[in-house]
Amino acid sequence: MSNEIVILAGTAASLGLVHTLIGPDHYLPFVVLSRARNWSTVKTAVVTLLCGLGHVLSSIALGFAGIALGIAVFRLEAIESSRGEIAAWLLIGFGFAYFVWGVRKAIRGQRHEHAHPHDDGADHSHSHKHTEEHTHVHISSYRSLTPWILFTVFVFGPCEPLIPLVMYPAAKHNMAGVAIVASVFGVVTMATMLAVVMTSSYGLSKLPLRKLERYSHAFAGLSIFLCGGAIKFLGL
Question: How far is the CA of 72 from the CAs of 37, 62, 207, 230, in angstroms?
């Protein structure tokens, strides 16, 4: 392996780490949804890795397509920027819809009382939740659209630093170098996503938030909405 490829691989590793850490969209949606939907540790890890894989592979595929077609770096970066716009709006839309659903669920889940007067003049009251009136089991595959929505968002999410890194060895017709640099970037990005998500989820599970549990879906939606807004309007 040439010194140039070693340097590029090291740069790819550093950029993959920083790119992930400074982008809250790489971990925040998984943390809040894992808590709100009571995902197991295994499911949280699998969803995170699959979304990370889609995120990285889509940019790698774009880079290889650009190499094959001879598209200039600045044009590929413009395409990545457009994909970023789409991903940000998808996060905003998904977050807002999930927030509205979460608020509605929290209101319906609030325990309240009903008075029941009797003919003899006595009356009593009982408390209940509306969610208790309609408890039934849904097919898991039907109700598990959330991970696939996240996967779709991440497929559109760009890896902007990757494009110029892979184009340099490509310009020298070093396809092995392209594969090495892209692989290092992808592995570090996914490993960082997984580490942050699992650590944050564990920490969140230790907080005494039981009284706020019924607002967890609303909080998750609001967090995702704000995350998308930060990417769109603040350039995070």
Answer: 44, 12, 49, 29
Q: Is 26 helix (H, G, I), strand (E, B) or coil?
A: helix
Cβ within 8 Å of residue 213, ≥6 positions away? none
Confidence (pLDDT) at 125? 53
Domain ranges of the chain: 3-84+146-210
- Average pLDDT by consecutive 10-residue portion of the chain (236 residues)? 89 94 94 94 96 93 84 84 92 96 85 52 52 42 74 91 82 84 95 97 87 89 95 83
Q: Which residues of 128-159 are buried (b: 16+ CB within 10 A; e: fewer)?
A: eeeeeeeeeeeeeeeeeebbebbbebbbbbbb
Number of H helices, E strands in the chain: 9, 2
